[in-house]
Design brief:
Length: 483
Amino acid sequence: MSVKAMSLRHRLMLLIILSVGLSWTVMFVWSFHSALREVTQWDEARLIQLGPLLVELNPAELAKLAEHGIDTRNEVPRHPQRPKLDSDYDDRFVHFQVTDRQGQIIARSSDLPIVRFERQPVGSVEKVAAGSAVWLMYTMRDTHTGRTISLMEPANEHSDLASGVAARIARPAIVLLPVLMLLAWFSIGIGLRPLTVLSHAMQARNDRNLQPIEIASTPGEIEPVITATNALLERLRTSLARERTSTADAAHELKTPLTAIKVQAQVAMSSRDSAQQILALERVALGVDRGAHLVEQLLLLARLDDDEKIAKSRLRLHDVITEAMVFRKHLADEKKMTLRLTGDGNAELQADCILVRALLDNLLDNAVKYGEVGGTVETNVKTDDRYVYLMVRDDGPGVSREEMTRLADRFFRSSSARATGSGLGLSIVNRIAAHFGADLKFSCGIEGRGLAVCVVFPSRPVGLTLAHPSSKFKDTDHRSIEA
């Protein structure tokens, strides 16, 4: 069973609670320790201030002070019951010992803990353990009188000053936390409102409604999401339109050979002449071949349209061209045509051999099919530092300059075409060229007649920055791309 993901609003609330709680906890602990340190420093400062006062007293005064003691409590009780955990209200006396230059005791408090005073540092306040309590101890030496003053005071470890500061910080935090969370909840809801609007707009989109999403006063953080979503919708709209067009065109193109097959099959069934039956069956076979070829072309286009990742390898272009030309030699012989290969025999491409062969098959098929009887089909390869140029040209009737711009459209056939065809060949060539980052150019063929098709491949893998080769084809005359 799937677990429902936490909503963005709840996630933000949880993060705010954790952040605020952690911040207040750190502030509480920091304030408590700071106040505790201040109380200790306050007590230490009082001990240091008492030392010079004792230096000025005579022995009788010191003895009297030792008898009565020095009360250093921090607070005076304002009611009879003192808090049990607040040592600020306790009777806390400073005990002292005064000695002369020779170390003889001048005065000493009767309750002074037993401590080795001679081992204690002079001029600084230290915490020492004596008996069952912790004491603050300060020792000073007066150079004028030669007296050594040692003072001890119980450490104030339960002062409500530190806990009071922390409590004063904690109480407002505890009271205001629910209010803060309520305000944060509504604020987050207002801040996330554009996401809600975007969600509703996306839910309203389907295959019949792929219009761009427009939201008034779009926040800067949401704008890239809307831009990317609109780009996706545009690609979907284009893809669906292309799919509908391709389906309609494919159905139209398949209808012709299927109708011809049906007619020839009916002729074969109704005729009693065996020669006529054989001829009709041969035409049925030709119609099936034509339909099968059309389906193969459509499948190849669908494979390329899906941007399928096709592995590339280094191949020698001359070998692929030779193989494609040998495969079509019998078709050229039927029309008494000459197939000629010229140019650089060592040119190499980083591409897929099957797709390059499909590209060549379509170029040579077009050239042989539409070329003149007894004419020539020339395949030329040349290279430079950045590009590999593959050109196939014939000396047939050619194509007008106006129609050249549409030769790569699916199912487009020139008005001068005299042979049967599906109009997919050059569209497939264009898609294969685009797949490998190549450029496709059309111009006049051999001696200004026929058609020349030039595919310009980058000699390095697609993705590297190359200067666009279009400058080599400014002139539409065949001489601008001829080897």
